[in-house]
Design goal:
Elements: H1 2-20, H2 27-31, H3 35-44, H4 52-60, H5 68-82, H6 85-93, H7 104-143, H8 147-177
Length: 180
């Protein structure tokens, strides 16, 4: 009896996992797919060409094959929207995609923005570390009654706040100089 119960639970879990698997498209989406449009979306998101393999796997479960030519045409068009200086900046600023998907004719523009974005990302990471240090000192300040230690902690917090403000100014300057 217990074995039957576990078998039933196992089957139910297997069915749930199959539905929740990493399928990129449903059966209906596979049946009505506009492969140019899917490629366009994937390209505009900077996805590698091999992303179609995930679509292929999802649709093959339903006996449907993607139109690789239409997908490729759409993806090529989508990459024109992704491989821009502005998008490069946004990706760099979040330490995202590095533009390796961009064709040679647009890679330089993307990388120009990406390099600026990476500078901003690096500075924001430094701000995050400074704020963590400031929080640590603020906590220590609450825990102490020693006037000398309080003065030292206040001095450290003030110094870090000035450093953070300087970095924020640097970020604003970088954005302004580069048109972001």
């Amino acid at each position: 009896m217990i074995l039957k119960k576990w078998a039933g639970t196992f089957c139910a879990l297997s069915a749930i996992l199959a539905v929740v698997s990493c399928a990129t498209l449903s059966k209906e989406e596979c049946q009505t797919a506009d492969w140019y449009q899917i490629g366009l979306i994937d390209g505009s998101k900077g996805r590698e060409y091999h992303h179609i393999a995930k679509h292929n796997k999802a649709c093959s479960e339903y006996g449907i094959r993607p139109d690789f030519d239409r997908y490729s045409q759409g993806r090529t068009e989508g990459l024109k929207h992704f491989c821009t200086r502005e998008k490069g900046f946004k990706e760099g600023e979040k330490n995202g995609a590095d533009g390796s998907v961009c064709p040679p004719e647009s890679r330089n523009a993307f990388m120009e923005g990406y390099q600026v974005g990476i500078q901003v990302y690096t500075l924001k990471e430094r701000i995050s570390k400074i704020e963590s240090e400031m929080d640590k000192y603020r906590h220590q300040r609450k825990e102490t009654k020693d006037p000398e230690k309080l003065d030292l902690l206040n001095t450290l917090i003030s110094k870090l706040a000035r450093e953070r403000d300087e970095i924020e100014d640097m970020i604003a300057d970088i954005r302004t100089r580069n048109g972001f």
